[in-house]
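Hey, quick one: can you model this chain's 3D structure?
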Amino acid sequence: MRYNDILLDDDLDDLKTKVKVAVDRVQQPELLNKVYSHLRKTTLGGMTQIAFQKDEDAKKYLKRLSIILLDMEEPAEQKARFLREFGRKSFIKERSLFRPDGKLKGMDTWFNGDAFARKFFLQLFSDSALLARPKGPGEVAVAALSPKVTLKQDGDLGYGNLEVEVKAQSLTSRGSGEWTNKGAATAPVTDAFKKNKLDTTNLPTKIVSGGGQRQAAKSFNVTQVIQATKLPLGSQKKVFLDVLQGAYPEADPGILKATASKYPNHTIEDYAKCSFDAYKKSQGFNTMLLLNATDNDVQSMCFSDLDQVQGGKYGTFYMQGGQTGPHARLNL
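Sure thing. Here's the predicted structure for all 332 residues.
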């Protein structure tokens, strides 16, 4: 006969008291909760099977979600209460989280749960075991705790008519809102010079970053190269527009022309708009969600257009491999 065969639920209170006496001797009350949870593993485990199967996205990660919950140090009663609520309510205030207003928001504005639910979300968000999966922990955490949000094949998340690309930075990973255009020409500057019958003798044929290391975009100043031709300003703007069209072929022509019209006084923000629009078109999403985790909070920002962004900071633009942007990076 196995131990689980003779342990009845009626015995648990008495067993918990005995374990508490032992745990109190080493002054580790959190150990009591963990031990008690594992003693109740059969009961709680069954509850996780039932609860997490109520949500299609949570069901895909049922085993990992169950392990995370059972290993938490909070009392078993809190875990049971959370599991009873799971599937009956949304722990995410979707309208707040996915409102594309470009505002920087704290978790209190869009999370709808008690202290235990919040801790579970944070642990799921930064779970290193999920990093190797097709979807990152940020996407899984949001989709699993909201019945109105779904994990998508092409985009990261779906909510209503929004196709949401998620860029998340957890406590166990580095990341931010950055976007690259993999459809770009390998040498848009050279191609633009050839198109305009200009000398390409001193132009690099491609951008190479050894060992996968990113190379700062400022190492190759397109403006200086074009200005060195001594062409009239109007002709220089035409060459610059050709460069932009090669670097960001899927971007809206109006955005590219607007940036070219500012030459040579265009800014990082102008490049970012070209890069973002090309990335949005190539990846097939209409909204971007940035998430940044700290020890007890997750900051968010949602936008569909860079003109909406009211916070954040552009990091160093970079070149990588044959991708010849520059490509944008927006940090919260």
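One thing worth noting: DSSP finds 15 helices and ten strands in the chain.
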